[in-house]
Prior knowledge:
12 helices
Amino acid sequence: MYDVIIIGSGVSGAAAARELSRYRVKACVLEKEEDVCSGTSKANSAIIHAGFDAASGSLMAKLNVEGNRMLPGLSKELDFPFEMCGSLVVCLDQDGLPALEALRDRGIANGVTGLELITDRNRIREMEPNLTETVVAVLYAPTAGIVCPFGMNIALAENACTNGVEFQFNTEVQSIRKTEGGWALETNQGPFETRVVVNAAGVYADRFHNMVSEKKIHITPRKGEYCLLDKSAGQHVNHTIFALPDKLGKGVLVTRTIHGNLLVGPTATDIEDKDSTSTTREGLDQLIAKAGKNVDRLPMRQVITSFAGLRAHEDGHEFIIEELADAPGFVDCAGIESPGLTSCPAVGKRVAEIVRSILSLEPDPDFVGTRKGILDPKTLSMEEHAALIREKPAYGTILCRCEMISEGEILDAIHRPLGAKSLDGVKRRTRAGMGRCQAGFCSPRTMEILHRELGIPVTELTKFGGGSRLVAGTNKDML
């Protein structure tokens, strides 16, 4: 019997697990995929929002601003990349000025600091030389930023694991029922029992909520398609560039990423399939056209990949974070769409406070609140790098030439808490395979290392778990 089981190991589930690990608690995270950060949290804009979009007084607005303020400290504690680069919302004509002013006023009401509406075209041009000539004003938010979503999600989960939270992967929850002492969860790996359930299942959160509550909710998968450009295009903009929001969200943005690429997207298409992350020619053409209205000379010939992610859009467009009145001990963490990535530190804190109150948890004096990420040799001096290679020669062997990732970094990714077990697991932890050739060169070598270090047969190695095996057999089997 666990004290608490969390369904889902995206940023919300991992943040809740990390906050709960501050207490004396027997906690477990159930994840249907083979790794953390395998759903919505791995395919998004990687933006830290300032907090001017959500309706004033909403939980979404409150946790956005709170999470934004927590991010700088959290990134230092858990050692993941974060930069407060600021954002600009672009207004293309005089008719849009009232909407831009309303956005500024809403941000001030939400508690966002430093917001500034700029109409001086010379100053706008100095801030962003590649904005289109038609721009008449921008809303500048200096507290917006960019982050590595994989790095943050993995850091939260690793720290939770180090502090005693169990993680069960490839474990899909199939049903939930009330018991005398709490809840029984049936999974494809057998039964689990717990006193409290935290439902952080992303686009599937409505399914679990509706199993236990008479008050139903509905979550629509909202697909967003993106284009990722090479690092040679990374300096095309200095800030995150937003269009004026519409009813489907913040529109198509253009931003540099924390690792120096340029990102364009997303579209916003409501679909029914909760697993559909395919891109379309129509969607990509649409986002390129929309982005080009705000930013001139986009170097779209430098696209190295396209991808799509799903947002968990709840019908009321609001975060649902509460213990259910008609299902005591069942805590929803549902409808966590944008700005969910920004809000996740505050979301985790709120979930943990609810669970602490239910279970009367006591602080754990042995809680360790810091974590050290994978060593990046590129941050070392030449002398330090040379000394590292003498001590650990694997750091002198480059496997991913595009991102200059060494064998030593891949070994670290495999053997650290909740280590990588697949090509995508290595990629999200080290960026091996994220460069211009998109893993064309480094995949075979990475597979050799996974086989050697984990003892997994080469024919069983996967790209991202499940049936995504890469090798069917060996050449010339008959010989």
